[in-house]
Write a structure and sequence with these properties.
The protein is α+β, with helices and mostly antiparallel strands. Helix content is about 30%, strand content about 30%. The radius of gyration is 21 Å and the shape is globular. The chain binds adenosine monophosphate and glycine.
């Protein structure tokens, strides 16, 4: 069948790499894609939020399965658009509808959902412009550090961890009165700080049954030893040793099952990926956030560890037959190191030629493109996160060695990467 992936990052290149290996895949399209996806699929120059444009291409190219990579089209209702259109209704689509996407699109919604369904999470209260005074008083009463979260989508920037009460009060004022995060920050959650170890669990669900995919840990800060500004993600590893059998059983019982049952009880269909950001505190799991899609760069380590035919799993998801499937995990470790433009996540340059990539093809490494473009037959940087270099090995240590061996061969003006990805979890 013909398949369309929506998105343009390392996540979408990884999905394209995996889907293109499926016997079920005929023509593969990525919209808009990048220079990496162009090597294995047809790129379509479409905005992921241009649903009419997507419709036209889906019909013209006889596409039967659409895989939605990023959250924005899901939160904007791409599934609802497909379901409401007679010409698109029959098309398989991976990703929840607008209602289900609220688990990511509104932190207030997801917090209330977790409370309703007794899913362990940090305690929180929501405040608006109208209740600013109450919010400021609340901050006086609770201990620090404290976490402030903009309710809506803020491209990973809407979470502030404040060490002092005064700092938190200033931040709350800025978010609510000066609309620091615009529409996304009209409601702000004041949340208890959880002191623990973070990890991400990924679930593929048809709304009734689910498969738990390999877990991962990502590295969000720009600087080594987790310092500096937050980024989209500077690297990731899988497996994560703190996700042992007992812990994962708790995650399944207290988080995954309760989430799926909760969605069912509330009549919210959900066909797609659920990404659960967790904190392990004193041995127990607490949810810090839900995302309704795969993570980036987590995809670059999770997908290479899945042995199944991904298209087969997607079709089972779409027709509600996931109970017939089981996940086969590659018993190897995967690591990815993200190479970024100097200056990222603040101002950075684009358009620098990339060298050294031709030397990097080995059996156990994959270079996934995130922000690249081809100009005059040569590869150029075209984003903040430029490449994600994945290595496979019999241990995380070996996988990391492979990632870094390739990273060191690749160059462009002012390239930057963290040298400490995975160092904290190598046993
Ligand atoms: P989020 O956008 O919800 O993933 O939050 C960004 C980051 O902030 C997370 O990856 C955590 O490192 C941190 N964080 C979020 N919520 C909490 C919390 N309640 N306690 C401690 N750290 C948190
Ligand atoms: N790496 C975090 C995310 O995709 O949201």
């Amino acid at each position: 069948m013909n398949i369309l992936i929506i998105g343009s990052g390392g996540r979408e290149h990884t999905l394209a790499w995996k889907i293109s290996q499926s016997a079920l895949c005929n023509q593969l399209y990525v919209a808009p894609g990048n220079a990496g996806t162009a090597g294995m699929a047809h790129n379509l120059p479409l905005d992921p939020l241009d649903f009419e444009g997507i419709k036209k291409q889906v019909i013209e190219k006889k596409i039967e399965l659409v895989v939605v990579g990023p959250e924005a089209p899901l939160v904007a209702g791409i599934r609802d658009f497909f379901e409401a259109d007679e010409e698109l209704q029959h098309i398989h689509l991976i990703g929840p509808g607008k209602e289900g996407a609220q688990l990511e699109g509104s932190k207030d919604f997801s917090k209330a959902f977790m409370v309703r369904h007794k899913i362990p999470t940090a305690r929180a209260k929501t405040f608006t412009k109208e209740t600013l005074e109450e919010g400021l008083n609340y901050l006086e009463e609770i201990p620090t550090p404290v976490v402030l979260k903009a309710d809506g989508l803020a491209a990973g920037k809407g979470v502030l961890i404040c060490q002092q009460t005064d700092e938190a009060k200033d931040a709350l004022q800025e978010m609510l009165m000066q609309e620091k995060f615009g529409e996304a920050g009209k409601k702000v959650l004041i949340e208890e700080y959880l002191d623990g170890t973070e990890l991400s669990v990924f679930v593929l669900t048809d709304g009734k049954d689910y498969l738990i995919l390999p877990e991962a840990k990502d590295y969000k800060r720009i600087g080594e030893k987790d310092t500096g500004l937050n980024t989209g993600g500077m690297g990731a590893v899988s497996p994560v040793h703190i996700a042992d059998k007992d812990f994962m059983q708790m995650v399944e019982d207290r988080v995954v099952k309760r989430t799926i049952t909760g969605l069912q009880q509330e009549g919210i269909p959900f066909m797609g990926f659920l990404f659960i950001g967790l904190m392990k505190v004193k041995g127990e799991p607490f949810v810090i956030e839900y995302n309704v899609r795969m993570g980036d760069p987590e995809t670059e380590v999770v997908i290479p560890r899945i042995e199944n035919d991904l298209v087969d799993l997607f079709l089972a998801t779409s027709i509600g037959k996931l109970h017939e499937k089981e996940i086969h995990t590659l018993q190897r470790a995967a690591t990815t190191v993200v190479m970024v433009a100097g200056g990222y996540p603040e101002a950075y340059e684009k358009g620098h030629p990339i060298s050294g990539l031709e030397e990097t093809a080995t059996e156990d490494t994959m270079v996934f493109h995130a922000g690249t473009t081809e100009k005059d037959g040569k590869l150029h940087t075209n984003g903040g996160r430029v490449l994600a270099v994945t290595g496979l090995g019999d241990s995380l240590k070996e996988a990391l060695e492979k990632s870094y061996q390739q990273v060191e061969k690749i160059n462009w003006k002012n390239r930057y990467y963290r040298r400490d990805i995975g160092q904290d979890v190598i046993l």
